[in-house]
Design brief:
Elements lengths: L40 E8 L2 E8 L12 E5 L4 E6 L10 E4 L5 E3 H21 L7 H14 L19 E8 L5 E9 L3 E6 L3 E4 L10 H6 L17 E2 L2 E4 L2 E6 L1 H4 L5 H14 L3 H15 L4 E8 L4 H20 L16 H23 L7 H4 L1
Antiparallel strand pairs: 1-2, 2-14, 3-4, 4-7, 5-6, 7-8, 8-11, 8-12, 9-10, 9-13, 13-14
Helix pairs in contact: 1-2, 5-6, 5-7
């Protein structure tokens, strides 16, 4: 496996010779000096030929974040790779599970997310070596093995919501055949983190279905239903998947709900991706712009992994998506309530304002939904 040169705009990571995509903690350009403490964050990007990779990770509360660092890896010899995110479930896994040598206590959710990341990384390594196939049962076995070996503290306090080492997982394994103009995708997920494909003609397409009883993306922005399935050490769990083939070039994205769960409509997440793309001069700058944007609006830890495949260079990537951004901006600006961008006046009717916002959200979602859900896997009851 070859490790390509690092992008000059990103801080050099510790060597990880097997993979292109070793994420690195990077300073913020123009940000505070090292003597002034800042919340831990990661913003990394790399441009390598026809592949551009982006990774973003940030904690909402310094030292308390439970998302693991995103995984972005590409195996040059076989033309395959994986991007994935892991969101430790703090509600179900709030109990302490491990103490670092410096005395810092880490929750079950924190350990679970990082254990799942390690297991997925090792699984991918063996997939590229031909020792494993790209099937959910194979990834499940790696997750189960690593979780069984991870530190746990069993409590006498039980409950239906409590879990040992609980975390979401959302990723996309991809395979590009030599000389082909198509890419084969295998989304793999458990929980409510998501994977997407981003195409210049039709925009953002969700590839995963949240493991919640509610599946409507707009309704999920308005509520926070419990997950019905997530990776954990003490209960059965499933890794969901489906297969699809898309034309090249394309963009693949995986994100935790800190990115997509605090916007006004599902379309706003795509607008965030495309707006920052047009402002960036390369993958590293795109990562920093995304990090700054998400920190301004999210109320959660946030992590994102992104890979663009088949675009000759970053300028071509920007150019191809510019018309889509103009179309989306025009669509989403129609009737958008001013209360979403400016504080309402003292005489504003709160109920009327809320009703206008809800009506606009419904209108936006109906205009956006068809393309967004065109690759959405069917609900389990639809398969019966």
């Amino acid at each position: 496996m070859n490790h390509p040169p690092q992008d000059s705009a990103a801080q050099a990571p510790q060597p990880r010779p097997s993979w292109a995509g070793a994420a690195t903690l990077a300073p913020v350009p123009g940000g505070p000096s090292a003597s002034r403490p800042t919340p831990p964050r990661l913003a990394w990007g790399q441009d390598q030929g026809r592949l551009h990779a982006v990774s973003v990770w940030t904690e909402r509360v310094s030292g308390r974040g439970e998302d693991a660092e995103p995984l972005v890896a590409h195996h040059w010899e076989s033309g395959q790779g994986l991007l994935a995110v892991f969101d430790g479930s703090g509600g179900a896994g709030a109990a302490p599970a491990w103490q670092a040598p410096d005395g810092t206590s880490r929750t079950s959710a924190w350990v679970g997310a990082r254990t799942a990341r390690l297991a997925t990384d090792c699984w991918l390594h063996d997939v590229t070596k031909g020792r494993q196939d790209v099937e959910p049962q194979s990834l499940h076995a790696y997750l189960k093995y690593f979780l069984d070996k991870a530190p746990q503290r069993h409590s006498k306090i039980g409950g239906t919501m409590r879990r040992q080492l609980p975390t979401t997982l959302a990723g996309v394994h991809y395979q590009i055949a030599v000389g082909e103009d198509e890419i084969e995708l295998r989304p793999l997920w458990a929980g409510d983190s998501r994977a997407y494909a981003l195409l210049p003609e039709t925009g953002l397409h969700v590839l995963t279905r949240d493991h919640t009883r509610e599946s409507d993306a707009l309704e999920l922005l308005r509520s926070d239903p419990p997950m019905t399935n997530l990776v954990c050490a003490d209960r059965d769990f499933d890794i969901d998947t489906h297969r699809l083939v898309l034309p090249l070039p394309c963009v693949l994205v995986a994100a935790t709900d800190g990115f997509f769960g605090y916007v006004h409509t599902p379309a706003d997440f795509e607008h965030l991706l495309l707006r920052t793309l047009q402002q960036a001069g390369g993958a590293a700058e795109w990562a920093h712009l995304l990090r700054r944007e998400v920190e301004a609006f999210t109320a959660d830890d946030a992590s994102l992994a992104l890979v663009t495949l088949g675009y000759p260079d970053f300028d071509d990537l920007r150019t191809r998506f510019a018309p889509r951004l103009r179309q989306l901006a025009d669509q989403q600006s129609r009737g958008r309530p001013s209360a979403l961008t400016a504080a309402p006046g003292p005489d504003a009717d709160a109920h009327a304002t809320a009703a206008r916002i809800k009506a606009w959200q419904d209108q936006s979602w109906q205009a956006y939904r068809h393309d967004y859900e065109s690759y959405l896997p069917p609900a389990p009851e639809e398969l019966v």
